[in-house]
Amino acid sequence: MTFTERLSVTFAALADPTRRAILARLASGDASVMELAKPFEMSQPAISKHLRVLERAGLISRSRDAQRRPCRIEARPLAEANGWLEKYRKIWEGNFQRLDALLHELKSQEKKRRHN
Amino acid sequence: MTFTERLSVTFAALADPTRRAILARLASGDASVMELAKPFEMSQPAISKHLRVLERAGLISRSRDAQRRPCRIEARPLAEANGWLEKYRKIWEGNFQRLDALLHELKSQEKKRRHN
DNA sequence: ATTGTATATAACGTATCGGTTATAGAACTG
DNA sequence: CAGTTCTATAACCGATACGTTATATACAAT
Which of residues 70-99 of B have CB within 7 Å of strand C? Predict the structure, then answer.
C-alpha cells in the first residue's frame, strides 16, 4: 500500500464516529471486543466490522487472551495523518491568526460535548 | 451540525486522494474549477462533485468571477481535525518515541512520492 | 461431553460514493 | 443576436459502507 493509499484508508476509518469513539476508548488502554461494544447500541458483529476496518487501516492491532482478542491502538497511521495535516498549518495560521485561541476553544468543546 | 458530525464529514472528505490533491493545489492559491480539473483524468462533473463535497465539509468556499467560481481553501475544519488528532499525540509519542524522526521521514516521503 | 462465553463470518437490505454521459444555465465574446 | 466558455445538475451504474440476524468457530468451565 502506498503512502497515499494509507492516508485514504486512515481518513476513511476516522470518518466514522463509532470508530473514533473506539479509538478514544483504546487511548486509555487495551480492551476486548465486548468491552468496546458495551457503550454502543449496536450489535456485536457491527463492532467486529468496525474493528476490522480499524485493523486494516493499521490503527489497531490485536493479540489473543483465551477467547478474547484484546485490541491495542497503533499510533503510526495517526501520526501520518497528522503529518499530512501539518502541511496546512501554515495556511490556517496565516488565514486566521488566532490559532492558540482556536485550539483552546477546541479543547473546551471536547470537554463540554464529550465528543468522539 | 455538531462538532462530531463536522469531524465525520471532514475526515470523509479527506479520505479521497483527488480531494486531497485539490486541497493541496488550493493551498498554493485560489483556483477555478477548470484549473483544478486539468491535472486529473476525470470529467468536469466529477470534479464539481468533489468540490461540492469539500464545500459541504467547509473545507473550501467559493466566490464568483464572471463565469468562474474560484475556490479557496478554508482551514478551520482542518484545524478541528488536527485538534482531534492532537489528543493522540501523547500516545504516539509514548509508543514510539522518535516523533521528530517520523515527521522528518514523512516529509521526505511527501517530496519523493508527490503524494496528495 | 456439554454448556457457556467471546468473537468472526455469511447473507442480506438500504444508502451513499465516485464515476460516467447528456443537458441546462450563466456569463462573456463577436 | 448567436456562439463559446465555465460550471452545475440530472439520471444512471457498479462498488462500497454500515447496519441487521443467523450461524459458525474457538476456547473455558463444569
Answer: none
Length of chain A: 116
B113: pLDDT confidence band, cut at 50, 70 and 90? very low
Residue of chain B with shortest Cα separation from A28:
B91
B34 Cβ under 8 Å from any chain A Cβ: no
The torsion angles phi and psi of B20, rounded to 5 degrees, stand at -65, -40
Report the percentage of chain B scoring pLDDT > 70: 81
Q: Which residue is nearest to nucleotide C19 (CA to C1')?
A: B46
A75 pLDDT above the threshold of 50: yes
CATH number for position B50: 1.10.10.10
Cross-chain Cβ contact A115/B86 below 8 Å: no
Please count the structural domains in chain B.
Answer: 1
d(C-alpha A68, C-alpha A50), whole Å: 17
- The CB density around residue B16, as the number of other CB atoms within 10 Å, is 17
Residues 18-57 (B) near nucleic chain D, CB < 7 A: 32-35, 44-45, 48-49, 51-52
C19 C1' to B53 CA distance, Å: 14
Give residue B57's domain range: 3-113
- Distance, CA of A103 to CA of B90 (rounded, Å): 16
At A6, list the grid cell.
494509507
Q: Which whole number is the average pLDDT over A21-31?
A: 95
Asked if A76 and A58 count as a contact pair (C-beta separation under 8 A), the reply is: yes
Cβ of A44 less than 7 A from strand C = yes
CA distance B54 to B61: 9
